[in-house]
Amino acid sequence: MVQNHPLQDPIGVIDQEILKLNESIRRLRSERNDIVPISQLPPELLARIFQFVADDENRESKPLERINFSHVSHHWRDVALGNPTLWRVISLGFPDCLPDMLQRSKMADLILYAGPSLESPKYTQTIQLALSHMERVCEINICLSPNGSEALDRMNELLGHFLKSAPRLRALSITPSNSSLIPLPSLPPSSTPCLRQLVLMCRDFSDWDSKILTGLTYLKIHNISGRHSSSTRQVLDALRRLPALSYLDLSYVSVTQVGNTVEYLITHRL
Question: What DSSP assignment string belongs to the chain?
Answer without folding.
Answer: -PPP-TTS-HHHHHHHHHHHHHHHHHHHHHHHHHHSGGGGS-HHHHHHHHHHHHHTS-TTS--HHHHHHTTT-HHHHHHHHT-GGGG-EEETT-TTTHHHHHHHTTTS-EEEEE-GGGGSGGGHHHHHHHHTTGGGEEEEEEEE---SHHHHHHHHHHHHHHHHS-TT--EEEEEESSSS--BPPP------TT--EEEEE-B----TT-GGGTT-SEEEEES--SS--EEHHHHHHHHHT-TT--EEEE-S--EE--SS-------S--
